[in-house]
TrEMBL record:
It comes from Dunaliella tertiolecta. The coatomer is a cytosolic protein complex that binds to dilysine motifs and reversibly associates with Golgi non-clathrin-coated vesicles, which further mediate biosynthetic protein transport from the ER, via the Golgi up to the trans Golgi network. The coatomer complex is required for budding from Golgi membranes, and is essential for the retrograde Golgi-to-ER transport of dilysine-tagged proteins. GO terms for molecular function: structural molecule activity. It is a peripheral membrane protein. This is Coatomer subunit epsilon.
Length: 288
């Protein structure tokens, strides 16, 4: 039997968020559980598009637990609920024998811990392996911890779950980039295949651009990133990568860095730029 949510789910993983909204809105007369899952992807797409308040206003106390978890994610990202209250709710859900078996609840808990760089707690919830996306989050967390060996093991586990899935292919590309060497070229082929097969989103363009950067192909990376920028001028990863590429190509990156500072003031690239500017000012002051 065909999976009615395949297109919505796949578009979300590829970063085609406007398409998710369109596809999800066209899916009607679904069984109750499928309708809830559809709405989780719909509201997550709205969050990715920056419409946090829409999500918060439309999901109420009578909504399913999965949707309550998505609302909590929106409240955290928008800053409309204190971190203390957010993680108190997460703790209650994870202590509940029903909620802690809900894949969306577990995924959101893992995402929240990851955002807080609490990787130990993130991995604890990811061990449930309740879904392929939770397994992919574990891969991402291991990479953030510079544990490429563990990330490789997690990808192998994903392959056993669904080797051909878009998420498995993406996670494989992440690990290949981290491994470096000839594996980076393999990662670029994965992004190429996904883009040609489905939709060249900003997410895929950024993924391949990182591969090009690792291989020293800065002009090719810039071409991908400019295409990504045209698709989504507010994507923080695109702006950060454009700054990196521009600096290597000796280009003026003031426009991109200014946008990045406004959209993602805590981005690692912003912090590095600010640290560089501060060091320059201190050096200039010492010579005055």
């Amino acid at each position: 039997m065909a999976d009615p949510l395949f297109a919505v789910r796949n578009s979300f993983y590829l970063g085609a968020y406007n398409l998710v909204v369109q596809e999800a809105s066209e899916l009607e007369d679904l069984p109750h559980a499928a309708a809830i899952e559809r709405d989780t992807y719909l509201y997550r797409a709205y969050i990715a598009l920056g419409s946090h308040q829409l999500v918060i206003s439309e999901i109420n106390e009578s909504s399913a637990t999965s949707l309550q978890a998505i609302k909590l994610l929106a409240e955290y990202l928008s800053g409309s609920k204190s971190k203390e209250d957010v993680f108190a709710t997460v703790g209650e859900w994870l202590a509940d024998v029903t909620s802690n078996r809900n894949p969306t609840v577990v995924l959101v808990a893992g995402l929240l811990y990851t955002y807080e760089e609490n990787y130990v707690e993130a991995l604890k919830v990811c061990r449930s392996n309740l879904s392929l996306e939770i397994a992919a989050l574990a891969v991402l967390v291991y990479l953030k911890m510079d544990r490429v060996d563990k990330a490789e093991q997690a990808v192998k586990a994903m392959s056993q779950m669904d080797d051909d899935a878009t998420l498995t292919q993406q996670a494989t590309a992440w690990v290949n980039v981290a491994l470096g060497g000839s594996m980076v070229q393999d990662a670029s082929y994965i992004y190429q295949e996904l883009g040609d097969k489905y939709n060249w989103t900003a997410t895929l363009r950024n993924g391949r651009a990182v591969c090009f950067m690792k291989m020293g192909q800065w002009e090719d990376a810039e071409a991908d990133l400019l295409d990504a920028f045209n698709k989504d001028a507010k994507d923080a990863d695109t702006l950060a990568n454009l700054v990196t590429v521009g600096l290597h190509l000796s280009k003026n990156v003031a426009r991109y860095s200014s946008q990045l500072k406004v959209l993602a003031p805590n981005h690692p690239i912003v912090k590095r730029l600010e640290a560089g500017e501060e060091a320059f000012q201190q050096a200039a002051a010492s010579m005055a």
